[in-house]
Design goal:
alpha+beta, 2 domains, single chain, Jelly Rolls, signal, disordered N terminus, four-stranded mixed sheet, Cellulose synthase subunit
């Protein structure tokens, strides 16, 4: 899909998802064993990407309700195809009603393997659980959550055993958290599925060229077709405000003015191009660090100028 968009516009280029722009930075004339070089190398080596995928991100905005004697549902949560996961867990957010008593059973499975079963007998309550997810690569590009709900009420012989008052509610906040090594993305398909639910598309500052505008629009449409909602990010300019509350700057870099001016702040107005270069290098700020970029001469010029200033 991405390839066809690029063919039509001649203007799309993908950056490594969420990784800082160290890979395209000019070489610094620093001693190989200096503390500053070591700090930069640590930043460059940190390519672990973290993702959280909720059912609401997949278009499930209302609770899924399971009732009757035997009700089942399978939910597919996307992950990068063929890439091992790390620190993966699935938070099952659910509750139940037990208005008619009887035997209620909840069975959860991951990729077809049963991992949790319990009886739920109170009048109502929490049916949530946190499940560990193994690190095996999924060639299918998804983790499959199976939910089975059974509710049987003992009745007089020949009477209907169905219970409309016994139901399970699966909340849209059910979510999968995981990390992966960006170096292991081997093809466009894996990189495409690895994008977050709301990927950022970086465009050149100021007025956009016709080709750039068209490419961004087509890329946004392609993302919508796979259930993702694009955010258009214009390359930052001096005096733009950015949120630095989550920024973590290595101690060795805090001796450099551009980094020192960003340290320990919340909202901050960018004072000069060097600060923009510092944010690009750190790769931690959502307002600056995009997942995709439109290959535009004006954007490349802005990136080079900010890195040169740094």
């Amino acid at each position: 899909m991405k390839s066809s968009v690029a063919t039509q516009t001649g203007a799309i280029s993908a950056l490594v998802c969420g990784v800082s722009l160290l890979a395209i930075m000019p070489n610094f004339a620093l001693a190989a064993d200096s503390p500053l070089t070591e700090a930069i190398n640590r930043l460059n080596a940190d390519i672990q990407q973290h993702r959280e995928i909720r059912l609401s991100d997949l278009g499930i905005d209302a609770p899924i309700v399971l009732g009757s004697t035997d009700s089942r549902r399978e939910l597919y949560l996307p992950v990068p195809a063929g890439v091992p996961l790390s620190d993966a867990s699935l938070t099952f957010d659910a509750s139940y009603l037990n208005g008619e008593g009887g035997r209620n059973t909840l069975l959860l499975s991951l990729d077809g393997y049963p991992v949790r079963a319990e009886g739920l007998s109170e009048a109502q309550g929490n049916a949530g659980a946190t499940l560990g997810v193994d690190k095996a690569a999924r060639d299918s590009g998804s983790v499959r959550l199976g939910v089975a709900w059974s509710s049987i009420v003992s009745r007089v012989l020949c009477e209907d055993e169905r219970a409309i008052g016994n139901v399970l509610r699966i909340e849209p906040d059910t979510r999968l958290n995981y990390s992966y090594d960006a170096n292991l993305l081997q093809d466009v398909g894996a990189a495409w599925t690895a994008l977050p639910a709301k990927p950022g598309i970086m465009v050149a500052p100021g007025s956009l060229a016709v080709g750039t505008y068209d490419a961004a629009w087509r890329l946004g449409v392609a993302l919508e077709r796979i259930g993702k909602h694009a955010r258009i990010l214009s390359f930052p300019a001096v005096q733009d405000s950015v949120d630095l509350s989550a920024l973590r700057i290595p101690a060795e870099l805090q001796s450099i003015p551009a980094f020192a001016s960003l340290n320990g702040k919340g909202m901050h107005a960018l004072a000069n191009p060097a600060e923009i270069g510092a944010l690009l290098m750190l790769g931690q700020t959502p307002d600056v660090q995009a997942d995709l970029a439109i290959n535009d001469p004006q954007l490349l010029k802005a990136i080079n100028e900010s890195l040169d200033a740094l």
